[in-house]
Amino acid sequence: MPAPSPAPFQPPATVEELLERCAGRWLSLRTLVTISHAEEGWDQSESSQLEFSWQPGQGGPELGVLRLHGTRQPDFQLHMMDAVQDREGRFAGSDGRRGLWRFNDVDHVLQLTWCSGDQHFYERIWFSKANLRLRSRTISCRNDPSAVQACAFYSEIRRLQS
Predict the structure, then answer these.
(1) How many Å apart are CA 136 and CA 49, to the nearest integer?
(2) Which residues pair with 114 in a beta bridge?
(3) In degrees rounded to 5, what are phi and psi of residue 129?
(4) How far is the C-alpha of 100 from the C-alpha of 98, rounded, in Å?
(5) pLDDT for residue 116
(6) Which residues pair with 139 in a beta bridge?
(7) Which residue stretches of 11-145 are H helix?
(8) d(CA 75, CA 47)
(9) What is the rounded CA–CA span in Å between residue 128 and residue 109?
(10) Under a CB-based contact definition with an 8 Å cutoff, are residues 66 and 51 in contact?
(11) Cβ neighbours for 74, distance < 8 A, ≥ 6 positions apart
């Protein structure tokens, strides 16, 4: 008899489910492209090991905290707050960033936007498979979001073994 086939992939239906799926150990592959007229140095790729945990909120305005446990960088916490119908709210990072989040339940993507100095950041996080998380980040001028300065794409594979 053939082995039973695995259940088909179901994308996360809520922002809490997406954040809960982020928990675990990941191998992250990043490609960064900066807008430059130089012949070299406009792109770079790197890999890193990431470990996330998700702690749901205990009621009140906070949905929960997504923690990045760093090996090459300090620990980072992302506090998700003020959910309006589980679709949008605010977030605060332990590094001082503050911004807005939105979960699109049609394409199952979490969008984060924030500003720092004269830069505007737009990040999208989604799953294409249960163990494959994808992220994209665009950095543009705060006063002109169409003036893109850099883009990054992350392909992250869940580590199932040590």
Answers:
(1) 18
(2) 99, 121
(3) -145, 165
(4) 7
(5) 93
(6) 121, 150
(7) 15-21
(8) 18
(9) 10
(10) no
(11) none
Give the tokens for residue 11: 């994308």
Q: What's the Cα-to-Cα distance from 122 to each of 17, 43, 110, 149, rounded to whole Å?
A: 21, 19, 11, 12
Q: Which is nearest to 110 in space by CA: 94, 122, 98?
A: 122
Q: Which two three-digit tokens encode residue 27?
A: 């191998």
Angle at 21 between CA 45 and CA 158, to 5 degrees: 40
pTM of the predicted structure, to 2 decimals: 0.88
Please give the structure tokens belonging to residue 81. 């707050």
Identify the residue whose tokens are 């960064």: 32
DSSP 21: H
- The CA-CA-CA angle for residues 51, 98, 137, to 5°, reads 60
> Would you say 22 and 133 are in contact if contact means Cβ atoms under 8 Å apart?
yes
Cβ atoms 71, 82 nearer than 8 A: no
pLDDT digits (tens, 9 = 90+) for 102-112: 999 899 999 99
pLDDT per residue as tens digits for the range 15-62: 999 999 999 999 999 999 888 767 776 778 999 999 999 999 987 888
